[in-house]
Each structure stands twice: as structure tokens, then as C-alpha cells.
Design brief:
This protein has twelve helices and 16 strands. With 406 residues, the protein is an alpha/beta fold. The protein folds into two domains: 97 residues, Roll (Urease, subunit C, domain 1); 294 residues, TIM Barrel (Alpha-Beta Barrel). The structure holds zinc ion.
């Protein structure tokens, strides 16, 4: 018997562009082999799946995670930290090593939640501190390896306890070792507030990035003019090191707390230097002006940040729910704006993470999900459970849960 030309043919679904009904998606070797028109004869395939008329969307991208901090996999654990950044850092160092589940097990539990919610690509920060050394990174890398058939995980070596205040040179050597051990980007954190030595931290981490040929993703929580100062210092170094397109500022709360004229100037600087912004719509901080940034040409993407962890008890690792939170905070009501919002949890995130061949098109990896929604605004607004999640053409989650439905 001749070999079937396709591994799987999917039928009875709708694409986001509202294209003609009756199209079929033909998958082979983990990729989208063809999008067949409705009037084409049914092709032979090893497997034919009827998707029940659901909307089929490209996999989601979570651009800011902390897989190593999550408490998923454990019974409910009451929040233990005081409401200050430094007390949360201290709680991490006290609590995380004493948990009955190790980093790999907890990170794996969170990756599976991400996948169940239709996410295929994750950028996570892993704590690199004098207390933890490379142990959190090693746990995250083990979880990544165990789930490589369901998602990609990009890791930032994150100096959660600071760089200069955490020892300076030995801390920079630890970050460099983290890149050698498998992290793909160098992180940073509040170079003024945490380190009180912006040049020390930023020169140090950019030197590692240059030496290793990797990007940077820097947590910047600093408010107002102080944060703007740090942001411009980061932009200057991105330009000086020729790192356009490989630099991200996480949060950038300061952009929401300065005069509009300064917002515009900062946005133009970020765009001209190739510095992206990732946001999670923090409830307790000023929001960066996302649309102003986008109109200036800044790449803006989204992530969940802390999900049921030592920093926050909230969240379920759902990027559609996260999009609805961000849209609600940013007052994005009209459909065209909600479609832009979707790009920030999908294609813009993929571009920021350097994911090639992203989207529903022939030749691309078959990463997508289905959802019982009329269209993208409905999918974000109501964010019902993902019906089916495919990674490389394989069903990896169904009905909102990891693994295939019974
Ligand atoms: Zn973070």
C-alpha cells in the first residue's frame, strides 16, 4: 500500500482571517504541508480530525515567565513575602530551596499549564544569585528538556538579587557561567534602585552579552524619571554594542509615569536602538503606553510574569487571559486594537524571541490551537479553555488540560 501523503488532515475549522469555509489543513513531519481549498478532493492521510467548527489560531507566546519560582505542583501555598521587592527576594532565598518539589518538577508543572493554554514558546528568567548559583537554571533546563516535544523555552540568566550589590565581579562571572551552561540571554534588574551603580551593572552585563553573542532582557521596575534614566542608559548600550533587535526591557513601568513628551522621546529612542518592551499589565504599577510605543515603532510583546509563585498567587499561565488583563488596563476596546493585542501575545512575541517560521502557513511548524470562539476579540474577551493544542503536528493538550483527552 502506498504511503499516505499526509500524516494528519484537519477539517471543519475557521481561520482568523475568516477565509472561505471548508478549507483543510494538511500536516506532515510536524509541519503544515498545505492549506487545501474547500473544493479540493479529500486527500489521503493517516489520520483525519474534525475540529467541530472551532477557531484555529497560531500558538501563543509567553515572553516573560519565572518558571523556577512557581509553586504549581504543590498544594496551595499561602503568600509569604512582605510587599517589597527586596523582601520578596529574601523570601525566594528562604522558601524555594525548602520546598518538597525541586525546580525541575515545579517548572515542568508550569510548562504543562502553558501548553494546555495554547502556548508553544516561552521566555523565562531563571534566578542566578550567590545563594542559588546555577541550581535554578539547571532545574529549568531539565524541565525544558523534558517538555521539548511540546514547547520551546528560552532562558534568561537573571540576577534577581542584583549584580553589584550581590558581589559585582563574582556575580558577573556567575552570569557568564550561566550562559555557558545553557541560558540564551543575560538579564539585569533595576540598575539604580537595586544596585545603586547603573554603570557597574549595565557595563558588566553588556560585556557578557557581547562576549557570548547573546541578547539582553532587563527587568526595569524603577518608576518615573529614575526609570527613564536607566532606560536611556540601556538604549545607549544597545546602540554602542550593535544589539538592535536583541534587547528587551521587561516592564518599563517608568514609561507610564512621565510626561507625554518624554514618553514620545523615549519611544523614539527605543525604536531607533531596537529595544523591545515586554509587559504583563502589572496591577500595582503604572502601565507603559503600549499603543504610543507601537506607533513609534517599538516592538511590544506580553508575558504572564509571576504565576502562582513566591511573588504572586494569581494566574493560570493563560496568554489569552493575560491579553484580556492588558487590554482592560490599557482600555483597548475596539476590534482593531484587540487584534493588535493578539499580535502582542503571538507574532510580536515570536519575533522578539527569534522564533522563525511562525504562523499558520505552508512550510511552518504545525504549532496551533483551537478554541470555541467567534473570532480573536471573542477569544481574548472570554478566553474559554483551549479545545485542542497541537505542537509539531501532535496533539499535546485538549479541553484545557495537558495531554490528550480520553
Ligand atoms: Zn519578571
Amino acid at each position: 500500500m502506498a504511503e499516505a501523503p499526509y500524516d494528519t488532515v484537519l477539517q471543519n475549522f475557521r481561520l482568523a482571517d475568516g477565509g472561505p469555509p471548508g478549507q483543510r489543513l494538511a500536516l506532515k513531519d510536524g509541519r503544515i504541508a498545505a492549506i487545501l481549498p474547500a473544493d479540493a478532493p479529500a486527500p489521503p492521510a493517516s489520520q483525519v480530525l474534525d475540529l467541530g467548527g472551532d477557531l484555529l489560531l497560531p500558538s501563543l507566546v509567553d515572553g516573560h515567565m519565572h518558571l523556577d519560582k512557581t509553586l504549581f505542583g504543590l498544594p496551595w501555598t499561602p503568600h509569604a513575602a512582605e510587599p517589597f521587592r527586596m523582601s520578596r527576594i529574601a523570601t525566594d532565598e528562604r522558601l524555594l530551596p525548602s520546598l518538597p518539589l525541586d525546580t525541575a518538577a515545579r517548572a515542568g508543572a508550569l510548562i504543562r499549564r502553558c501548553v494546555a493554554n495554547g502556548t508553544a514558546h516561552i521566555r523565562t528568567h531563571a534566578d542566578i544569585t550567590p545563594a542559588f548559583g546555577l541550581s535554578a537554571l539547571e532545574g529549568v533546563l531539565a524541565a525544558r528538556e523534558a517538555h521539548k516535544a511540546a514547547a520551546t523555552v528560552q532562558v534568561v540568566a537573571f540576577p534577581q538579587a542584583g549584580v553589584m550589590r550581590a558581589g559585582g565581579k563574582p556575580m558577573l562571572e556567575l552570569l557568564d557561567a550561566a550562559i555557558g551552561a545553557g541560558a540564551e540571554l543575560v538579564g539585569g534588574i533595576d540598575p539604580c534602585e537595586v544596585d545603586r551603580d547603573p554603570a557597574g551593572q549595565l557595563d558588566g552585563i553588556f560585556a557578557i552579552a557581547e562576549k557570548r553573542g547573546v541578547g539582553v532582557d532587563i527587568h526595569l521596575h524603577e518608576a518615573g524619571e529614575l526609570g527613564l534614566f536607566s532606560l536611556l542608559e540601556i538604549c545607549a548600550r544597545v546602540r554602542a554594542h550593535g544589539m538592535a533587535g536583541r534587547a528587551t526591557i521587561s516592564h518599563g513601568f517608568c514609561l507610564g509615569g512621565i510626561a507625554e513628551s518624554k514618553q514620545k522621546a523615549a519611544a523614539e529612542m527605543m525604536a531607533s536602538c531596537g529595544v523591545a518592551l515586554v509587559t504583563h499589565g502589572a496591577g500595582s504599577a503604572t502601565m507603559p503606553p503600549l499603543m504610543l510605543l507601537r506607533r513609534a515603532g517599538v516592538r511590544v510583546f506580553c508575558g504572564n510574569d509571576d504565576v502562582r509563585d513566591t511573588w504572586s498567587p494569581y494566574g493560570n499561565a493563560d496568554m489569552l487571559e493575560r491579553a484580556s488583563v492588558i487590554g482592560w488596563r490599557e482600555d483597548l476596546r475596539h476590534d482593531p486594537l484587540i487584534l493588535e493585542l493578539f499580535s502582542m501575545v503571538s507574532s510580536e512575541g515570536a519575533a522578539a524571541l527569534g522564533i522563525a517560521d511562525y504562523g499558520i502557513a505552508p512550510g511552518n511548524p504545525a504549532h496551533f490551537f483551537t478554541i470555541a470562539a467567534e473570532n480573536i476579540p471573542d477569544a481574548i474577551g472570554a478566553h474559554p479553555p483551549r479545545k485542542r493544542v497541537f505542537y509539531a503536528g501532535r496533539l499535546v493538550a485538549a479541553d484545557g488540560a495537558w495531554g490528550q483527552a480520553a
